[in-house]
Design a protein that fits this description.
heterotrimer, A alpha/beta (about 425), B alpha+beta (about 550), C alpha+beta (about 500), A: about 425 residues, alpha/beta, Rossmann fold, 5-stranded parallel beta sheet, B: about 550 residues, alpha+beta, Uridine Diphospho-n-acetylenolpyruvylglucosamine Reductase, domain 2, Vanillyl-alcohol Oxidase, Chain A, domain 3, 20 strands
Amino acid sequence: MSLKDYRPMMERCSNCLGCKWIPFDKIKSQRFGENCPSVCYYNFNTYSARGRFQLAQTILDGDAEYTKKVTEVVHSCTSCGACDVSCKICRYNLEPLDHNIALKIDAVEKAKTLPVQETIIGNLKKEQTMIQGQKRIDRMNWAKGIKVKDILLEKAEVLFFPGCKYSYEDGLTEKARAMVFLLQKAGADIGVLGKADACCAGRAYQMGFEKEFEQRANANIEAVRKSGAQVIVTPCSDCYYAFKRLYAKLGLNVEVVHIVEYLDRLIANGKIQFVKPVQMTVTYHDPCHLGRQGEPYVAWEGGEKKIRNQIHTWDPPRPRYNGIYGVYDAPRNILKAIPGLRFVEMERIREYSWCCGAGGGCSETLPEFSSWTAAERISEAEATGADTLVTACPWCESNFAGAKNQNGNKIKIYDIFDLVRAAL
Amino acid sequence: MALSREIYQAFEAVVGARNISEDIGICESYRAIPCQTSDHRGPFKQKTPLPQAVILPGSTKEVQGIVRLCNKYGIQFKASTTFWSVMGYIGSDYSVQLDMRRMRRIEIDPKNMYAVVEPYAIGAVVQAEAMKYGLNINIPGVGCSSSVAASTAGWVGFGPQTIFMGAATENMLAAEWVLPDGEVLRTGSLGAGSGWFCGDGPGPSTRAILRAKQGTAGSMGICTRVAVRLHPWPGPAYIPSRGMAPAYKANLPDNFKAYTLCFPSWDAYAEGLNLLHQAEILYLGHRQFTMFGRDIKTAMIKILNDPDGQLSDLEGYVNDPELKKANEDMKIDIQVIIAGMTPRDTEYKEKALDRVLEMVGGWKSEFMMDPEIKDWVLMYLLRMGHKNLNYVMCGGYEGNFGLSGNVFVSSSVMEEASALKKKWEDEHDYIAQVGGDSDMGSITIMGGGGSTGWEFFTHFDSYEKESVEGTAEFFNATQEWMNQKKLGLDMGKWNQSARRPDGYYFSQEEQDEMFSKLAQPLVAYYQYRVREAFNPNNLCGSYYRTLSKV
Amino acid sequence: MEKIQDALTRIVGAENVCGDPKVLSEYSQDKSFAPGLPPRCAVRVHNAGEVGAVVKWANETRTPLVSVSSQAPHYKGDTAPGVPEAVIVDLSGMKKILSINRKYRMAVIEPGVTYGELLKALAGEGLTLSVPLATRAGKSVVASVLETEPRLNALHQWCDLDPLRCVEVTWGDGNRMFTGEAGGSVMDLEQQWKEDKWQWEPAGPMMLDFYRLLTGAQGTMGIVTWASVRCEIMPQAHKAYIVPARKLEDLVDFAYNVLRLRFSDEFFIMNNTQMAYLMADKAGEVDGLKEQLPPWMAVVGIAGREILPEERVAAQEADISEIAQNCGLKMPEAVGGISAEAVLRKAARPGGDASWKEIYKGAFQDIFFSTTLDQTPKFIQAMGSLSSQEGYPVCDVGVYLQPENMGASYHCSFTLPYRADCASETGKTRELFVKASMMFSRMGAYYFRPYGIWSRLQLNKDAQGYQVLQRLKGIFDPNGIMNPGKLCNY
């Protein structure tokens, strides 16, 4: 859908501004009651989902244009989808998240981008990664020294897709190897894409670079098809979302699981057993693209149908992504299975979780805002009394680590896999 | 006329560069489009004027600085908090819009049961903070997403819990207010530094100029802090919940009871409500779910309780014989909540409720006593977090008919009003066809009962021009009917005398023409005199209704 | 003088104009320490038309008007002229009860109607009204509600101004209008009643809250010629209890806990001295009663009205009793030889023509203000110290604490009896009154109803608020004819 196709939604948004808060039924405090990093940081209403609906109307009408400020507004959405969940508590015919991205796509089509975005996307096109400064040629270096099948050469049931962060970043490459090792030890038949491995481009889509995303997506889908893999396992939530939702829409027909789901299964059927106590008080951050945006894709083609004069319905009924079927229990099951670990919840969890700030490319394009967003989450984690904040996405982890270092917080930041290893 | 650099920089010096913008995109997003929200003025498609700048003050001092500059340069201003209502937007070209979002502090005095709030403390968070101390706040019908200060100090402010907690005007204690001339007024006990506990006096109340029945909707300066009386909350420190979005359900202890009371006739309904006013047993009373429409309310309840529910499911449910029967059973109904302070209190209130029903031949809906539905109702009504359901069906809603009068008067015309609406639903396709009666309203508009406040939810498509215009026609018809019945102004037109259909404020000449026809024109004349005294440069627009001469 | 009387005679008739110096001297000074001046004359008015004509004349002649509704004696200084040459507008003859509506629990009354008269009429309709503590027989209900006298049942006060709702007022500029809901319709009560409108909603009717300009105004804004009041259903079951305590602090916790849960109907706290003043039939009984009584008492009334009255009383009795127990207190029906029922009977009904506070020494002076309950012990302690210091017997200081507005604030009142015929005692009491008033002001007391010297103490603390009041006064009483000299002559 192009931006103008969202016109009915723009005009049917009622300005209730529930999109700025977690579902009201779940608010436990003022401090942690809001949900949209963008409007919380920049304060002008324009930065909210409603503001974006209204901004888009004025752009379509020619009353406003993509000024420098408007361009910043448009791209300051972390695409976290918290607004979408809150909106859908009451509404059945609005898609604020899709609209936010459509607005970005419109801006990108009109060459209204933030300066860093061009560099990032240039790198994606050239080196097929979102990590600036990294080379395509180095992508598989992470797998050096481990025995793992190249799935395009040798059939394997499970395709392990580490994503850009785990492929390139110090500290993470070692972890990627450990993941493969653990999965293999638990009996999984693992392969990797080898030379065909490249960025999922989910973040490009989140930034509004739809064409670049589609190019990469189609190439990746083709590689997966050729691989014959039955299951894709990824430790990156952005990759998970790209494969699970975006690629599925483009025709990918393979089971996609995040590593926490896979580990949860292995723990449940006894193939992984924890032996060492981990004496930590841990709270868990739900990555947006694993949680509320991690719901399975459901194909739909249809249109609006009015009943009873003016009530809008979809014919046939349209899938309703309201965040509830995301991956929430698996990581919690893992943490609760670790001996000695005390698990505590933050106020904003599951479908109404607060974003880490890295989404929508913001960790690169608007680092100050992104870091503030992460710091907010760290404050929330600290308020639980936890000494450790755990997540299941390398983008979240690095954004938290950056904010922690910047602000001098004492809380420890880990990926959930780190605790799994510690307990083995 | 854009702001000169001198003026813009002067504002910037008050709030800092980060908190002011004149960018066209920012300013455009601070224009209201009345049919996309609710305005009680008619569902127009025109936008309100474009502000010259949007300013975000962070303190009373900054607000005062802005207002003084507005006086110095003759710039109109309007402050708003959550921007839901068109009332909060400017109405002239040479204006600045204040967004009060940065002012959000909440301080609670748990012992003396009040909260001091800044404008951006919304109902949901004040309630959440109050519950930690076993207290609760009156959340008016506008819902918990709206500003407590705006509801308390700025607009009508009654709702489901008014039967137990009183209306906003009653709960308003002392206030801090930047007057339109830039002076700061502190009312009641606050003025002399004695605290926030009393909003009236000493002697005559200066509060009189700030807030009466309707509230001044931001037309008499800017309320920067207000103390709001809190009320007992005999529940946990927060409302524990279960279930999946959107149907979160409250896990509350047994002292909370939610019922849908049903009556055999409107006479019995009126009698029953009057007895409930007198009995002092309710924590909450609201005719809530008929807002979807008499024919479809149980179907909507089913959909809203199903995480996978869709509006496409509606027809299937509507034709379900069991649900049809439940609709019939609940034809004349109201939702109530009892919150017992102790087990004895709960027992007494339950018995008293049953006695009232017995006296008027009423009953409790079985359908609504299903534990899952009951707990959803508890969550819904106690939090009032579902305002956007007003718009769920068509995207547009406006309340009409609307009678804040005694229950015997309002209930006696309910069927006739329903029939008129049904006629429009059946003969035209502008508004949703829901069975006529779509009345929603509070069991009382003031503490202790006496009058109910009701409105018919009229659902229209804010995207479709024909639907918007047809709805306006329907409101003309309902106003005509209300005139015949001498029932006053249709709620969909309450604010028609405050802002023109083109989104601009009225001129004084236009106001004179309107308000000279009041039954008691002195009311608007004195308001003119007060405006002249406290808003000499007329910077806050025509929501302050004035008549320049009698 | 002749000219004035002629003009007023044309308006109200000769029989209603009084220039008799003896009668006028009764208007010139009340029983408070506030100074007063003799009026020029007094007129008895009987309807709003006459009031309007008098106000019009007063504007033309710039004559000060002082309206009086209650029967003498007066105690607060507000009706004693503060300037010379004033004309008293006596409304006490306006005694019509214009309507009582059982269904809506509303009554509309003229200013001359007393509590005794209204309660009797209400009882005939199955209604009653929460009243000020043992109000005197000749007290005007309209004056009482306009002056926001505290009521025994704070939980039926949804705001500070309840039970007052709508009024008809003639402003100082001579304009007459209805306020609140009544101001939104045709200015004709009969017509409004035909339309089933019962002057129920007080605010507005639009942006400006007119009735709030009249409450606490001591007649400085306008003259009210009827007011509507919100009534209550007459209890069918009614019990009373006294909760005795050695320390006020114990009752503070008890009061917070009871009112917080919305339990009780009548509720107030007194020390033994004040209770003795209230319950003694003659001066000689006071000291004995004081000795019998515990130092502090909370009086708790529980009423059952139309729905299961006995059950309501029983449930609340048990619950409040438990709260008392949790505070280490008991809740008997009688203490020190007086029954709670007798206390409530006396507290909730109009008494004699004079105040019961005169019983002990023939005269008294009250000091009262609003505060929060947790602040009251510090004021009481300070009053004790100051009394000792000033040589006033501490044991004679009566203390009365009355929750207002659902307990959001408390009326904190000290009663200082003295012998008016003893110059030194009078002087000493006057000095204590002035010093204590100033001390409380410094301590943060809020003179919500700023009579006499309190108006200066209170209004001078808030320049901006005072300036707003002045501007309002200028609008509604542009010639300053309404009770000038009061409220700092604003």
